[in-house]
Design brief:
CATH architecture of the domain at 87-279: Orthogonal Bundle
Largest sheet: 5 strands, mixed
Helix content: 25-40%
Radius of gyration: 36 Å
CATH class of the domain at 87-279: Mainly Alpha
CATH topology of the domain at 87-279: Penicillin binding protein transpeptidase fold
Distance between the termini: 103 Å
Strand order of the largest sheet: 2-1-5-11-12
């Protein structure tokens, strides 16, 4: 028959043997002190000399916020993506179900509200149980919290190797933990400690803290946990692998039921609740979090752009490591400028542009708001990871400079050749000099030899168009896309019909060729690397041979839409920390009158005709006053429309996005089931722009464009909304395929890049 003695005291002989063994140990006194001092501390007794080691241990613990989820939000507050090193969302204790509080206390520390941080009764009971051969822990919830805080701090500092797991703790580690627990109990209330513990504790690699665990395993919030759900999660913390219901359901069920028994034993539930909970099967509704911009619910590439705006900005930390910790552990809320009302149609349209897209042609749309620079939509037809609904995956962002992503070769695509979308800047220089938008120019001229007397007050103009001088570095004689336009014409006619010879006649008529450079600098044109201003002193530069990003081009065209104001692109409205304090964000950064307002009006006057009678007359009408310019590179492999209303500017791109544009031609190709003898800016990028803008334009301003002074237009009052298109003009009808033209040898001082347009391509 079993002895009637108290089971704890019945182990006296065994405990005596243990103490005898410890007596020969050099750390015996320390261990005894470690066991006795917590009781003394709780009762207020003074420690004696045998606890000198214990007294020398640190007694303060810095409790920092554990790593939390950073959320990237659209302008309307909808979530774009979450970013984290540890999936954790802190919730207050009163937002946790009473069931989880009762369950965790019942199974982990039934005397939690009675002890002072270290439970000596529990320690003695655990020693007795361990001597009998069963395994029982003695760490209180406070001690576990201390361990988690220390480990979390080490991980946050990148000192993962210094983390000491429970099974690896020595006597010194345990004593330190005890002393810190006692001190912590004097600093914080029991409820504060319990709240901190439930928010920091590890459940699995996808769930840190009770809110993340509730969402992960049951797709519910911590405040809604039922008794069986709470019991399962409370049981899980003891061994997140052994009791993981996804991989060890039998273990998880047994552990859950043990917790339910403990809840009954300690009066947290009644017998009926116990029986009903035991009878309930484990009913998981797993909701694995997908963190990172690649898994964004919308606008993955925009998210990546925003992320690297912050990671590259010293305002968010002195070093890259500091900034990365702030983003991935700081629980930030990053509210962006993205407008989902525009983003969804933009994404749908670029996805439709190339259909199944076996040849991986790129398509993108980028919209900004003139007058503020806010990026409202950013879409492209690829995905960041394979298997996300597209056979075209890439990490490269088609819309931004290379530096605006990771700051290296993995990031922005580095821009594309804008072709004739550059022509409005030469036209702007013409108007800036006070010349008429309707003045007649000689567009019959095709030869500009090496010794042509360009008027310039800054850089010498380099390059030439003269087949007779090709051996000396000149490009072939200048060509238009179609015959019939080598003649005199009004300058605005030459622009809206995208006549190459008209652009060079415009440049030849300038008082100062440098005015083109001044316009380019004023609207912040720079290369797709994001490093250098465009050099407009080479003749071919007037037709867009440089790689330029859609973001740069849209921002430049926004100067026209806004009446002369340049605004730097902005994507981050506000950044707040976990406490809700604002720590960053962007405000509109604008410069008024970077070009004269009347010049902007004159450009808009001409570009409205592009969509009515010019190179883009076939582009679908959007039902609002609008203006645009088409562009195509020399290989028909990179095509554009830059179009705008008074409220939105959108860059539409279609073409070769990842390779050298000369690597394949946009000629004799079938795209989305349609055959194209040549691909032109108006043919694919154009409908992409028109269909999208027809859906979204009226969400923002659509005021009519202000008319330029009558002296600038010769008194023209053409109604652009009703005028019928003229007969064939460049970029209206598919041209016959042309043999690819080699990049020209530059004149002295020119650029011999194979990615440059020789000036004879489509408009």
């Amino acid at each position: 028959m079993a002895s009637g003695k108290n089971p704890v005291f019945d182990t006296a002989t065994t405990l005596g043997k243990i103490l005898a063994f410890l007596g020969v140990s050099a750390i015996c006194g320390v261990l005894v002190a470690g066991l006795m001092v917590p009781a003394a501390a709780v009762t207020g007794s003074a420690a004696n000399g045998s606890v000198q080691f214990f007294d020398s241990l640190p007694g303060e613990l810095k409790v920092d916020q554990p790593g939390q989820v950073t959320r990237v939000l659209a302008a309307d507050g909808s979530e774009i993506a979450s970013l984290y090193a540890e999936n954790r969302t802190r919730v207050p204790l009163d937002q946790m179900s009473p069931n989880i509080k009762d369950a965790i206390i019942a199974i982990e520390d039934a005397r939690f509200y009675e002890h002072g941080g270290v439970d000596t009764t529990g320690i003695l009971r655990a020693l007795a149980a361990n001597v009998r051969g069963s395994r029982q822990g003695a760490s209180t919830i406070t001690q576990q919290y201390v361990t988690n805080v220390i480990n979390e701090s080490l991980v946050a500092q990148g000192k993962d190797a210094d983390v000491v797991l429970n099974g690896q703790k020595g006597v010194g580690d345990k004593l330190r933990e005890m002393k810190l627990s006692i001190a912590l109990e004097k600093q914080y209330s029991k409820d504060q400690i319990l709240e901190g513990y439930l928010n920091i504790v590890f459940f699995n690699r996808n769930a840190y803290g009770i809110q993340a665990a509730s969402q992960y395993f049951f797709s519910t919030d911590a405040k809604n946990l039922t008794i069986p759900q709470a019991a399962m999660l409370a049981g899980l913390v003891n061994s997140p692998t052994m009791y993981n219901p996804e991989i060890n359901p039998d273990n998880a069920l047994q552990r859950r039921n043990l917790v339910i028994d403990a809840m009954l034993q300690h009066g947290k539930i009644n017998q009926q609740q116990h029986d009903e909970a035991i009878a309930t099967p484990i009913q998981l509704k797993v909701n694995p979090p997908k963190q990172g911009c690649a898994y964004a619910s919308q606008a993955a590439y925009f998210c990546d752009y925003v992320l690297h705006q912050i990671l590259n900005d010293p305002a968010y930390g002195a070093t890259p490591d500091d900034r990365e910790k702030k983003v991935f552990r700081g629980g930030l809320t990053i509210k962006t400028t993205l407008d989902p009302r525009l983003q969804a149609p933009a994404q749908a349209r670029v996805d439709a542009t190339a259909g199944a897209n076996p040849d991986k042609w790129g398509a993108s749309l980028l919209t900004i708001e003139p007058g503020t620079g806010k990026v409202l939509a950013m879409a492209q037809n690829s995905r960041m990871l394979p298997g996300q609904g597209s056979n075209f995956s890439t990490v490269y962002n088609f819309n931004v400079d290379r530096k605006d992503a990771n700051g290296n070769d993995i990031g922005g695509a580095g821009g594309f050749q804008p072709g004739s979308t550059m022509k409005p800047f030469t036209f702007s220089a013409w108007l800036t000099e006070g010349k008429s938008a309707t003045q007649t120019i000689d567009a019959s001229r095709r030869v500009y030899p090496l010794n042509y007397p360009w008027k310039t007050t800054c850089n010498r103009v380099t390059g030439a168009f003269n087949s007779a001088e090709e051996s000396l570095g000149a490009a072939p004689t200048l060509q238009n896309n179609d015959e019939g336009f080598y003649r005199s014409m009004p300058i605005n006619y030459g622009l809206y019909n995208s006549i190459n010879t008209a652009t060079y006649a415009t440049a030849a008529g300038l008082n100062d060729f440098c005015d083109i450079q001044r316009i380019a600098d004023a609207v912040q044109l720079h290369d797709g690397e994001g490093k250098e201003k465009l050099d407009m002193s080479t003749l071919s530069s007037l037709l867009g041979p440089y790689n330029v990003s859609p973001m740069t081009m849209a921002s430049a065209f926004a100067v026209f839409a806004s009446g002369g104001t340049y605004c730097a692109p902005m994507s981050i409205a506000e950044v707040t920390d976990v406490k809700g304090d604002k720590i960053g964000g962007q405000a509109p950064s604008c410069q008024q009158n970077v070009i004269k307002p009347d010049v902007a009006k004159g450009v808009n006057f001409a570009l409205q005709d592009v969509l009515v009678r010019g190179s883009g007359y076939q582009i679908p009408k959007i039902g609002a006053p609008s203006a645009a310019k088409t562009g195509t590179n020399n290989f028909n492999s990179q095509t554009w429309v830059l179009g705008f209303t008074t409220g939105l500017v959108t860059a539409s791109f279609f073409g070769e996005a990842l390779q050298d544009p000369s690597s394949r031609l946009g000629r004799n190709v079938t795209i989305n089931g349609k055959f194209y003898p040549v691909v032109d800016g108006a043919y694919i990028a154009g409908p992409q722009w028109g269909d999208y803008m027809a859906q979204v334009a009226k969400l923002y301003k659509t005021d009519p464009f202000e008319a330029p002074p009558a002296s600038m237009t010769g008194g023209s009052t053409t109604n652009r909304t009703t005028t019928s298109p003229q007969a064939s003009t460049p970029e209206q009808q598919p041209a016959q395929p042309q043999a690819p033209q080699p990049a020209p040898a530059p004149a002295p001082g020119g650029n011999n890049s194979t990615k440059r347009n020789n000036g004879n391509g489509n408009g």
